[in-house]
Write a structure and sequence with these properties.
The chain is mostly beta strands. Helix content is 4%, strand content 48%.
Length: 527
């Protein structure tokens, strides 16, 4: 009776949902939900007579964001530009930056990493071939004004930028170490290096937790404690530069793990995503390895790709992680090593959860044991090694075991999906993918949104300006909008012509078509 009394207050739609929920699972409910269709809302060319190359989109608060690109000067040398946009796609300002040059002159440079902090300050690191190679770090204010620029010594490898919250300092990982830079003037506060002797560390990814601890995952080559030549190395240190622990997982000979990303979990562990590389010509799997807060390896989930992913930097594998839901989202395509167009795009989501022991009625907590030498292609866990006091947050070396379960699995065999470029996930776990559609030697930007159920429907659209060829470079999703930075050219293919533009695109997921072209602001003259 009590249920009926409450039930009378529901409207017709609510009653229908209640009736469905009594007979259908959540997965089948998702199967009938409408997948939103990407609709182009606005397009704007960040134009100019010189060739331009888009680099990255960086999200600030809400849907506000920065577009980073280079533009050729009168002599053909690239110069660095940053534009700020609001969530509607309207450009707020454009900033030209002349990098440090000693002596002054032209020289090629490229941006290695970009990031923002809670105050929407923008940090950029770049590498220049001038003077035998120079790495620089730039800080721009929210108004586009240059706050400071610093030359970073002994830094040639790939870099990650980890701004500290509250408008604080920034930590830059680079090569085999890290440096912390002061917020106000960029001065070096400390420098940390963690590479053991007789090893080479490269291809690293970094992440920061909400206690400002920094995690770095990298590939190791050379002598190590496992007696192998390859291993995944994982380090954790404080914002003050104190190394808390270092751990590693061995890989068999000729299996070279290529880092895809490092992500902090909600219990202050870390999830590492990598491609288990090799030279045997076989399909290469993607591995997701979970570690707890003290560095103990808790489990590995393997995703069979059906593709020979030889070099992820040229053959993108995109990984996103939702720490609150313990879910990793992974997308890739099956293009061949000779870079012919793909015949399939694939996307998978994997949720991690602790292993339940029915005898105990709770999650089993077996003691971590020292790993045997790696055999075949199986990856074995290893002990973590505390090289400094672990701190009050570390309770024990007993590692709760976790397993990954596939939640979504999609295969797109549509011939319009030729080269996958990027992927992002909205707040409800829906994946949007962007790539290149080659149609009779014409390049289009292809945007595809997937349903939240395995094998469910997809909605897709493509874009190019009349008589032009468009190729996406970077994207992100915020609320119901997809923001894309693309290269637009008179010629097709990967080469950049003398009349290339950077194009800024905004797509809406669902809703009515509303296409506008924001007025282009006049570009400031180089100083």
């Amino acid at each position: 009776m009590r249920w009926r009394a409450r039930h009378r207050r529901y409207d017709v739609n609510t009653m229908l949902v209640l009736a469905l929920s009594s007979t259908l699972t959540l997965g089948s409910l998702l199967a009938v939900e409408a997948t939103p269709s990407p609709t182009l809302m606005s397009t704007a060319a960040v134009g100019g007579p010189q060739a331009q190359v888009p680099i990255a989109l960086v999200q600030a608060k809400g849907g506000d964001h920065y577009a980073v690109y280079t533009k050729a000067d009168e002599l053909g040398w690239p110069t660095l530009w940053v534009d700020r946009y609001n969530a509607s796609g309207a450009r707020q300002w454009s900033h030209y930056h002349e990098i440090l040059r000693t002596p002054a002159g032209n020289g090629y440079h490229n941006v290695r990493a970009v990031a923002t902090n809670s105050q929407e300050t923008l940090y950029l690191s770049y590498y220049s071939l001038l003077n035998g190679g120079t790495t620089g770090l730039i800080k721009l204010g929210v108004d586009g004004a240059l706050a400071w620029e610093r030359k970073i010594e002994k830094c040639r490898g790939s870099a990650s930028l980890l701004p500290l919250p509250g408008g604080g300092d920034v930590i830059m990982t680079c090569g085999t170490g890290a440096t912390r830079r002061a917020q106000l003037d960029g001065a070096e506060l400390w420098r940390q290096s963690w590479t053991p002797a007789q090893t080479t560390e490269r291809d690293h990814k970094a992440a920061r937790d909400n206690f400002n601890n920094v995690y770095v995952a990298s590939q190791h080559e050379g002598a190590n404690t496992h007696g192998t030549t390859q291993e995944l190395a994982l380090s954790k240190f404080t914002a003050e530069g104190t190394l808390l622990w270092r751990t590693s997982v061995p890989y068999p000979k000729y299996k070279q793990p290529s880092m895809l990303g490092a992500f902090v979990t909600k219990d202050h562990g870390v999830l590492v995503a990598l491609v288990r590389g090799g030279s045997d010509g076989k399909h290469e799997p993607i591995e997701l390895l979970r570690f707890n807060h003290s560095g103990a390896h808790q489990g590995t989930h393997t995703i069979e790709t059906g593709a020979y992913i030889h070099e992820p930097s040229k053959h993108p594998v995109i990984v996103r992680f939702d720490a609150a839901d313990e879910t990793a989202y992974v997308a890739w395509d099956n293009r061949s090593y000779d870079m012919k167009p793909a015949t399939e795009w694939r996307a998978v989501s994997v949720r991690f959860s602790p292993v339940e022991d029915p005898r105990l009625g709770e999650a089993a907590r077996p003691v971590a044991r020292r790993a045997p030498k790696a055999t075949g292609s199986k990856v074995q866990p290893s002990d973590s090694v505390a090289v400094a006091p672990p701190g009050a947050g570390i309770l024990s070396k007993q590692a709760q075991q976790w397993v990954g379960t596939v939640q979504q699995q999609h295969t797109i065999a549509d011939p319009g999906h030729d080269f996958l470029v990027d992927m992002d996930v909205d707040g409800v776990g829906r994946m949007s993918l962007v790539g290149v559609d080659i149609d009779e030697l014409t390049d289009y930007v292809r945007v595809t949104t997937l349903s939240r159920v395995s094998g469910g429907e997809l909605k897709t659209t493509r874009f190019r300006r009349e008589g032009r060829h468009a190729r996406p470079v970077d994207m992100f999703v915020h609320n119901d909008r997809v923001y894309v930075l693309a290269e637009d050219d008179e010629i097709s293919g990967p080469a950049v012509g003398s009349s290339a533009d950077v194009v800024h695109l905004v797509f809406r997921l669902g809703g009515r078509k509303r296409l506008t072209s924001p007025a282009k602001l006049p570009a400031p003259r180089p100083k």
